[in-house]
UniProtKB/TrEMBL annotation:
It holds the Pfam family Methyltransf_25. SUPFAM superfamilies: S-adenosyl-L-methionine-dependent methyltransferases (SSF53335). Zn(2+) binds at C10, C13, C26, H30. S-adenosyl-L-methionine binds at Y72, E97, G98, H188. One of its GO terms (molecular function) is methyltransferase activity. Residues 9-51 form the 23S rRNA (guanine(745)-N(1))-methyltransferase N-terminal domain. This is S-adenosylmethionine-dependent methyltransferase. It comes from the Bacteria. Coiled coil: none annotated. Keywords: Metal-binding, Methyltransferase, S-adenosyl-L-methionine, Transferase, Zinc. Residues 90-164 form the Methyltransferase domain. GO terms for biological process: methylation. Gene3D superfamilies: Vaccinia Virus protein VP39.
Length: 289
């Protein structure tokens, strides 16, 4: 997808990137070639936390298989139902292999809105899978802490199951931009956790305090609690691989879980919608005078 030149910016100097066929370049001659698969890599080496940051190809494929089965569709529907109005420019931070991004695009298209959407993830492997899902979304490899998009350009920012760094948001949004964050509740995957852990903690995470400290106020909250039915050991394995538990589980616990061929699992997901606080808008208005 070719975006207006004003939307993507150079990750080195923040000047506008102009597109010349498969090459993107700023006025300072920093140049980035579009990959043959159709995505743009704007992740600078100094912003990587490892040689290959983010989820690997096996995790991306596991997520794609499970999400394509439809078991997480209630989460996608929760997101789509909370998108207000018809946003023209959308950024999905931590988009993974693009399931939620593409379904949001289709949801808006059904309402007559041809939104320009940027899907951002730090993992090159997951972005490669995202391109396969929808080539009309601009997929980029980049850091969510430093989204390489133009100042005040985004009408909607979404981030699902990703530790969001709000300090990177203020420059890319305007006063009416909605920021939608989706996180897990205390009962999320509780049955799976009881199988793989000796002790299960019912911790929950709310982004409200962290966002408030960065100048964003919560203007809406919604949730979905539902039981999903995993009907094969492959789906159970895929679910484990797309969660942080994949990194923590012992081999014995993994084998115990994968001995199941069917499993009913609770989905417990909480959505928060944020906007810049009125105080923050007022301060910004004063400083601009």
């Amino acid at each position: 997808m070719s975006l207006p030149a004003s939307l993507l910016v150079c990750p080195v100097c923040s000047n506008t990137l102009e597109q010349y066929d498969k090459r993107w370049q700023c006025r300072n001659n920093h140049s980035f070639d579009e990959a043959r698969q159709g995505y743009l890599n704007l992740l600078l080496a100094q912003h990587k936390n490892s040689k290959a940051p983010g989820d690997d190809l096996a995790m991306a494929d596991a997520r794609a298989r499970l999400l394509d089965s439809g078991v997480y569709e209630p989460v996608s529907n929760l997101l789509n139902s909370n998108v207000q109005g018809l946003p023209q420019r959308i950024l999905d931070i931590g988009c993974g292999e693009g399931y939620y991004t593409a379904r949001l695009k289709q949801h808006l298209a059904n309402q007559g809105c041809a939104a320009q959407i940027v899907g951002l993830d730090i993992s090159k492997d997951t972005i490669r899978r995202a391109v396969r899902r929808d080539r009309d979304i601009q997929w980029i490899v980049a850091s969510g802490a430093r989204p390489p998009v133009a100042n005040h350009s985004m009408d909607l920012v979404i981030s699902l199951f990703t530790p969001l760094m709000p300090q990177g948001l203020e420059g890319i949004i305007h006063s009416d931009t909605d920021i939608i964050l989706v996180n897990t509740g205390p009962q999320h995957l509780i049955e799976l956790r009881h199988i793989i852990y000796d002790e299960v903690r019912l911790d929950t995470f709310s982004p409200i305090a962290k966002m408030a400290a960065a100048g964003f106020e919560c203007v809406g909250e919604d949730a979905v609690q539902q039981t999903i039915h995993l009907t094969s050991s492959q789906h159970i394995s895929d679910l484990l691989m797309m969660t942080p538990h994949h990194w923590r589980v012992t081999q014995a616990a993994r084998e115990r879980l994968l001995a199941h061929t069917k499993l009913d699992v609770s989905i417990d997901v909480v959505l928060h919608r944020f906007r810049l606080s009125k105080n923050k808008i007022a301060i910004a208005g004063t400083e601009s005078k």
